[in-house]
Every structure is written in structure tokens, then in C-alpha cells.
Amino acid sequence: MIQSQVEEQLGTAFSNLFQFAQERLLLFDDQFQLVGANEPALAQFCSHSWSECSGRAFGDVFRVDPTIFLDRVREASRQSSPHFDQMMAEFRGGATTSCRIKSWLVQGGSREFFVIAVLQQREDRESVRLADNELRELATQAEVSKVANGLIHNLGNLFNSINISTQALVEVVRDSKIPELLKANRLFLNNLDNIGEYVTKDPAGRFLPEFYRTVGDFLKEDLDKLNIELGDIAEKVAFIKEMISTQQDYAKSEIVTRKLALNDVVDRALQIELPSMTKRGIRIEKHYQARFFVYGIKSKVLHVFLNLFKNAKEAMTASEHEDSFLRIEIGELPEHKVQVTVTDNGAGIEVADIDKMFSYGFTTKADGHGFGLYTSAEAMRQLGGSISVESDGPGHGARFRLVFPAFMPTLA
Fold first, then answer.
1. pTM
2. pLDDT for 188-245, tens place per residue?
3. CB of 341 within 8 A of CB of 371?
4. Beta strands 24-28 and 34-37: pairing type?
5. SS3 content of the chain, % helix, strand, coil (to 5)
6. Helices 298-318 & 208-251 angle (0-180, nearest 10)
7. The domain spanning residue 48 has which CATH number?
8. For the chain, how many structural domains are there in total?
9. Which of 302, 247, 21 minimizes the C-alpha distance to 138?
10. Taking every pair of C-alpha atoms in the chain, what is the biggest distance, in angstroms?
11. What is the CATH number of the domain that holds 334?
12. Which residue from 309, 319, 234 is spatially nearest to 278, judged by alpha carbons?
């Protein structure tokens, strides 16, 4: 259960994560008041009654100074990791027991919340690791769902464009001069034996030469229109196939680490957001020094770039630049590494927020959930790479820098 006004700030993606997690989760606001608890937590602390728990002070549940505790959580967040601690907690019926907890920060609009997961005492390091993996998996699934929604929106735009082209084809066929040409051909064949007299003396026949002279221009014009519209439909269909294929790759839970053509993976991720970027007038600049190969998991690399392109699009939509652009650069680094930079001239990032951008639950968007960049950083770490961001502040865009280990045949 999460208070409705809090749920509006945190978004449905976080609420779903909160609802379906198996751990006992408690959500406190920046005033250290309890504003959310899932069913397992309610059963242990409040006899399944949310009314008994709502608004309960942090100090009434856990025997620790809340400000000191929150400082520890913030410090762990700066290291892009949850905070683990051992604290005394008051359970249902007044029983006080030492328990192991895991906590992390969540940003909701302009407010800061923190989640506490009460762990079973028997959980060892492996159990904690599995719980972390479960949270990451849920976060990744939330991102897949969000990308899929964006894909459906873009597919809708493409199908609408195809429908317009189809209507144009119908109009060309409907207004075609071919029926008149067939009628003229019948007149010509019916009077073939005396065609000279027919086209010079017969009132109907005298129009045939002029008709044949002009009908070719009309048919050529129709053929040009047909070629243009059919070409546009073929391009859109190919685009749709590529987008669906990219989404299928992205949604795969593959674990195979293999040689990847980095340029192709970047371009495939760009395909998903390209229709909506084009609609918003965002200019795409690509500067690839060469064709580079990296050693990684395709779905994870796609995940990273889909997040970056989506965030860049939203940042530029929120800004007021007349010439919005997204610049993608791929180049070689020393020590067998490849660097990709993704630069936009969108809304930019507050200097104070730079260090929080990859923290779990941190977001600067009103409807954000703080999973995207966190899971991207996790993916880059698992691939043996890194991701960082820099910005000159609000209104000055952002530049993300990703470093991948290059594919080395000797290591494969």
C-alpha cells in the first residue's frame, strides 16, 4: 500500500516493483514518515492494516537516529549501491528484534524518499546477492515495458503514414486515365481498316491523335506518384520490421557474451526513437571513425543505448532550442577500448545532480522511476565498461561517455 499522492510522484512502475517484491518493504518520506508498505511488511508490523501504519514515524519502527541513518543511505547511493545495516525494529505486538535491512534512495518529483527492505536473519551473502539481482531484473523489466510502449506509439505513427500513402494510391487508381485509354483503343481497333479517314473526318476519330499525345503525360504522372507512394510504403514496412526485430533483441534475456558490431547495435537502438525524434525536428549527427567490435551481450548493449536515446529525446523536447540535435560519436581509445559519446543540447543537468544520475531510484523527471540510468550503469559494469555524464548545467545539454572493452580474438 502506498499513499495515492506519493504514488503519483513515484509512478506506476515503482508501485508495481513495490507491490510484487517478495521482501518486506517500507517507504519513508523526507520527513521520516511512513508513506508506504507492501503486504509482507504490513503482516509483520501492522496486522495487515495500513491505517495502523500510515504516518508512523521512522523512530517508532527502528531504534536509530533517522538523520544519521539517512546520511549512510545517501553515501551508499553516491557509490551506486544499496545500504546494508543491522538495526533494532519494533514488530507487531510490541516485540523488538534485531534485523538486517537493505535501503536505498528514490526520487519522486522534487522530494526524496527512501526504501527499507527488512531481510530475513538467515539470509547470507548469496541470498542478498540474489535479492539484488531480483530487484535489478524487475527494474530491467520495467524499462522493457516502457520502451515497448514507446515502440507501440512509434509503430502507430508509421502505420498512420502507411495509411495516408495507401489512400493516395487509391486516389491515383480512381482518377487514372487507363479506362479512357482502353475506350480509345477499342475505337481505334474498330476502325483500323479505315483509320486514316476515321481520324480525319469522323468527329470522334479526330480526337484520337490528341488524346494519345496527352494521355502519355497523364500516365507518366500517375506512374511517378505510384512509385513514390509504394517506395514510401516499402521503406516504412522495412522500418517496422527493423524496429520489431530490435525490440525482440532488447527483450531477450540472453546471457551469451560474444563479438558485437558496436556501430550496428547503436544504429539499431536509434531506429526505435528515430520516428519520434524526426517528428520533433531533432537532427541526428553520426561520426563513426571506423567499424568497431566489442565483446558483450547484445540485449544489454541495446538496453544502454535505448535508455540514452530516449532520455536525450525527452530532454530536448523539454528544452526550447530551435535546432535540437543528437550527436553520436564512436572512436578508438588506447588499451584496446572503444568510446561512444552521446551528446544533446537539451534541458541539461544540475551540477548537484551529476553524481546522482546513476543512483538507484534517482530521477529528475516528474513521471520517472529512476531505473533507466541505474540499470544502464549496471549493464556497463557487467560488460567490463563504464558510463559517465557531464553537463554545463540547465539549458546546456548533456554528454554521456561510454567506454567498452574492444573485441580481442585472443580473449574470445
1. 0.49
2. 888 888 888 888 888 878 888 888 888 888 888 888 888 888 887 887 787 677 667 6
3. no
4. antiparallel
5. 55, 20, 25
6. 110
7. 3.30.450.20
8. 3
9. 21
10. 116
11. 3.30.565.10
12. 309
